[in-house]
Amino acid sequence: MSKKPASFLDAFKGFGQKKGSGKDKEVEKYEKILQEQPDDRNALNGLGDLYAKRGDAEKACEYYLRVGDLYAKDGFALKAIAVFKKAQRAKPEQISTYLQLADMYVQKGLIGEAKTNYLAAAEMQAAAGQKHDSLDTYRKIADLDPANIKIRAKLAAMYEGENFMVDAALIYLDIGDALIQSNQTEGKEHYQRALALQPENEDVLSRIAYSYSESGLRKEAEGVFATLSKMFPKNPDYREQLELLAGPAPSVATPTLPKEAIVFSTDELSSLNFGDEEVAEPSIGQEHMLEFDSNSFNLTDVGASADHHSLDFQIEDQGSISWTSDTDEETFAPDVAAQSQSLDFDFEEKTPAVQPSPPPAVTPPSQPVAQPAPSSGGFFDLASRLDTSFNFEQNIGGAQPQQTASLKIQAPEKLATSEVKDIVKEFKQGVLEEVGAEDYETHYELGISYKEMSLLDDAIEELKLASLEPSKFVECQSVIALCYLEKGEYNQAIQALQEARARVGKGEQRYQDLTYQIASSYEDGGRVSEAAHIFQELFQMNPGYRDVKNRLNRLLA
């Protein structure tokens, strides 16, 4: 009985040692490993490589995707990207691979690469007749750039043209949310567009109603909540919101200077009697008697002086105090005697103001602040071939305005082919402008992952992007050279090493290392004289460096 391989590496060493052992035998050994360890990533990846070499793209892609899913599940996004890239190369027509790869790019913050793969997937979905899936993928691209209102509006038009009205309405809602604070007119237009497409959709209506309320558009919010209350009478929240909006608008307290301030002298303030006795708080509307001495204007107890006066006052609603004096004009201050005064104050401001009030001394309830009428503006028309109208005020059950504005909505017909091409072209242009603009460290790590997976061209591409960071240039060029050497492209490897050495000082250890690699690359490429010349240069710098003396003697022999 043959001994079972201890590990994947032991099994791999035995592959191909027997004559006549074909690739089917190698596949069988990989599968035996997977029987014991179904999630063995090396075995899965090895099977994918074998099937890829055999030209079985379906099988190769299947195993690559299994490995990629395992890496993604464990949080190794860069390794997942590298394996999904292999799956994409094995079977470039599989749409799901582009989407999975794009999702991983988003996770690592490589937005440009994510958009590229989303765009490729969207085009493939459209070509396969998967219109809704294609638009959803375009939407993912738009979501990566939420500030681009123009793209989102065109995407909504694409949904609308394909008669996907719910999706179109949701995008119009997103646009309205983005604009309502900075530009209420345009924000309202997009909300109305969404309502025109989905006038009975509770989610659409409620989002708009609450947004209007939060933005201070009480009239518009009241109309939408009225519609919601009629359509969904069992929802108490809509009725509650409607009642709040129907009440007085909250007034914004603005500090004002008192028209007639009461000024006390230092002696008067020092004579104020703040006793320790507990006094029950008066209830609203209850009358009280305040005794004071008119000569000193000090608050005293009753009977403290022969000359007393009484002041009747009433604490009324809204923080107003009104009083009348029972003295005549000859014995009291001219500005206070025989007059009815009102002392208005704000409990929060703590700055009282004395203002005359007409009899009776009752403070009128604050009136709601009238909201300015929303300015009307022309709604951008994504297509000029429209003739249907929608009256927003009538639809939400609000009061009829004096001037009824109508909103044209796009008929659910397909967009012209030229329009779709223009929109797709704009998507592509946006993608091309952003590729390669992300974090250099991530590009470097991804390049290393590609190299480990033998995706040498992809590794070179990523490392070149990472080398744009000056601090990583030398390191990136060194790894790029290793990739070229593995591909057998010695001239490109030597060029990369020379560019790296040009950024290093001659006194540094790295300079000697790069010189040794350049000489070895010349030798591996069959350019013996150039290799001997470089080894000789290194020998003069450091005769004891590694095996430079032996290699130089061998080349010169």
UniProtKB/TrEMBL annotation:
PROSITE patterns: TPR. Residues 355-367 have a biased composition (Pro residues). Pfam families: TPR_16, TPR_19, TPR_6, TPR_8. Keywords: Repeat, TPR repeat. The keyword Ribosomal protein does not apply. TPR repeats lie at residues 61-94. Residues 348-378 are annotated as: Disordered. The keyword Repeat applies. This is Tetratricopeptide repeat protein. It comes from Candidatus Moduliflexus flocculans.
